[in-house]
Amino acid sequence: MTSAGGALTPASKPSNLNVPNVITIVRILLAPVFLIMLLVDNGQDGPLRWAAAALFIVAIATDGIDGHIARKYDLVTDLGKLLDPIADKVLTGAALVGLSILGELWWWVTIVILVREIGITVWRFLVLSDRVVPASRGGKLKTLFQSFAISFALVPLPNVLGDWMYWVNWVLMAIALVLTVVTGIDYIVQDQRLNRRPAQR
Structure pTM? Predict the structure, then answer.
């Protein structure tokens, strides 16, 4: 930007208190509400199970909305880059733990995914003083498949469409699991490559 005297001035950064970041924070706050709704009727095919599934789908869908708003109106912030993937992890983590508590998902699957997600999040905090690590394309694809897999697992479709829907759920969850592990390794590998590059002069 140029001042009235013609001197260059740095462009002002958007405030951390903006609409996309508020949406992201609301997603985080909705996670415990969703988990309580999922568990309160012990996994029965009742109104609360459907409501919990709907809440998860709406909450996870806002991930694309806040990102679109942030890019369109130049509201991208370092805080938003950090909170956005955390919100996804809190929501998906709550859903995975809930499904495992209900006996609808193997605990080892939940543990593998949570170890990867928590590990990458901790790593992001550790390097925060040097750089902000945004979600990669692979990470976004992983989140998309996790969202699909968990959404299908939450909605009691086998009770409506038949047992073949279990196979759909298992295939989607298997793809999400593979992407979770692969992208976790990729984050570390890419970061190591960047660290080995000589500083540009």
Answer: 0.78
